[in-house]
Automatic annotation (TrEMBL):
The keyword Hydrolase applies. GO terms for biological process: carbohydrate metabolic process. This is Endopolygalacturonase. SMART domains: PbH1. InterPro entries: GH28_Enzymes, Glyco_hydro_28, PbH1, Pectin_lyas_fold, Pectin_lyase_fold/virulence.
Length: 467
């Protein structure tokens, strides 16, 4: 009996040790992890059958509203086993589009889906807004618990937003808001925060007309096998591409040009196995921002952002190139950014991790590799644990590896860190980095286990990060 007890104890210890945190010791480790992950992320296959939206009454004159035609085409395609719903050349005005399983919404070259500026064309659905669950306007393209869905083609998705439609709801004068306009999101945003803190049932957090919480553009929710390729996305009301709680997401050769408020390019939220590659971002907010929910909602669901590859993308304007946070209460792990290019006088940071003690969560295993940066404004690498208000959930940031980073025209800092003494940024490694034309090499606090190898700032070797 004693022998079996010892065996059981050893097994428990083995399981415990195998699950322990282990920082990388060389770039070969994350590179191998990337190769393994790529084999798991595959695009869905669709039945070879086309459903032309014009066969369902759609008219591409830019004036006729085609919401019903899109609905009929997608539903018929779904019922019959799937295929492509094809949008031919023309400008097709519509309200919200709901994507069903096994449907590829294919936007032909020369075709534009132009979304209505009338909020009545967007039904109330279960959604997330800035990482908080609620009932609000449907995203312009939405899916819930669907499988094998896609948006493809060399056409355009136009959110049709400007300072007179959607954008001014943010409440900023630079985006068209003034005291004479009724729309402003601030009171509803505060109410949603209040509901979340109270842990009110999300289906009873009802917004919509009169609350001015802008919809996101593309939001598959709790869906599997989402694919997007080749399309141009522009003029979103808010976040552009926002898969939530999805698994197996592949996005390639997509171009996002959208300069409105909170117009993040790509916001995968609490998703697992995500690969975005060969895409272009020129945005009014973060180019790519990886998220896992805000505060109580993020912690309550407890789903991290997990296994993300960001490869061969180009970032122009945007608050950050590759960002983790700030709605990151569920944590993030295994984030790999490789071969990306960034360059803009308006780009503020190349790699940014932003969180707070109101969020909590663990952010670990971030690999930032082979990155070329022309210009940025603030910092090449930025850690911030004091983003927004503090709380009682101290976050963790650990195992951050930056290798082969070149910067031609840096901003104020090369490295900027703002952490907690009780929770320092741990195991930060920088290898083969050349950062030129910065004002101040670094400003940091509370870093632990820092490794710098062949790092130069303004042509001078950087061997440590003393205060």
């Amino acid at each position: 009996m004693k022998k079996y007890a010892l065996i059981l104890f050893a097994l428990i210890i083995s399981i415990s040790v195998s699950g322990q945190y282990k920082p990388w010791t060389s770039s070969e480790q994350p590179l191998q992890e990337i190769n393994t992950l790529k084999k798991q992320i595959v695009k869905p296959n669709f039945r070879k059958k086309d459903y032309l939206v014009t066969d369902f009454g759609a008219i591409g004159d830019g004036k006729t509203k085609n919401t019903g035609a899109f609905k009929k085409a997608i539903e018929k395609c779904n019922v019959e086993g799937g295929g492509r719903v094809v949008v031919p050349k023309g400008i097709f005005l519509t309200g919200a589009i709901y994507l069903k399983s096994n449907v590829d919404l294919h936007i032909s070259e020369g075709a534009t889906i132009l979304f209505s500026q009338d909020s009545n064309d967007y039904p109330i659905v279960f959604t997330r807004w800035e990482g908080m669950e609620c009932m609000n306007y449907s995203s312009l393209i939405y899916a819930h618990e669907e499988e094998n869905i896609a948006i493809t083609g060399k056409g355009t998705l136009d959110g049709n937003s400007d300072n007179d439609h959607w954008w001014f709801w943010c409440g900023a004068k630079k985006y068209g808001w003034n005291e004479s306009r009724p729309g402003r999101q601030n009171p509803a945003r505060a109410k949603l925060h209040e509901y979340m803190a109270q842990k009110k049932d999300p289906r009873e957090r009802i917004f919509g007309d009169g609350y001015y919480l802008r919809p996101n553009f593309v939001q598959p929710y709790k869906s599997k096998n989402f694919y997007m390729a080749d399309v141009l996305v522009k003029n979103s009301p808010m976040w552009n591409l926002n898969p939530v709680l999805c698994e197996n997401v592949l996005i390639e050769r997509v171009k996002v040009i959208s300069h409105g408020p909170n117009n993040d390019g790509f916001d995968p939220e609490a998703c697992k196995n995500v690969w975005i590659k060969d895409s272009y971002f020129d945005t009014g907010d973060d180019c790519i921002a990886i998220k896992s929910g805000r505060d109580e909602d993020g912690r309550g669901i407890g789903k991290p952002a997990e296994n993300h590859i960001i490869e061969n993308c180009e970032m122009k304007d945007g608050h950050g190139g590759v960002v983790i946070g700030s709605e990151i209460a569920g944590g993030a792990k295994n984030i790999y950014a490789i071969g990306n290019v960034m360059d803009s006088k308006n780009l503020e940071r190349a790699l940014r991790i932003k969180t707070s003690s109101n969020r909590g969560g663990i952010i670990e295993n971030v690999f930032f590799y082979n990155t070329k940066v022309g210009a940025y404004k603030e910092a090449a690498v930025r850690f911030n644990m004091h983003y927004e208000k503090p709380g009682n959930f101290i976050p963790t940031i650990r195992n951050i590896w930056v290798e082969n980073l070149t910067v031609e025209k840096g901003g104020k800092y090369a490295i900027l860190s703002d952490a907690y003494e009780s929770s320092p940024v741990t195991d930060f490694t920088m290898v083969n980095a050349k950062i030129n034309n910065v004002e101040i090499p670094y400003k940091v606090d509370f870093l632990k286990n820092v490794t710098l190898k062949n790092v130069t700032v303004n042509g001078q070797p950087l061997t440590d990060l003393n205060k």
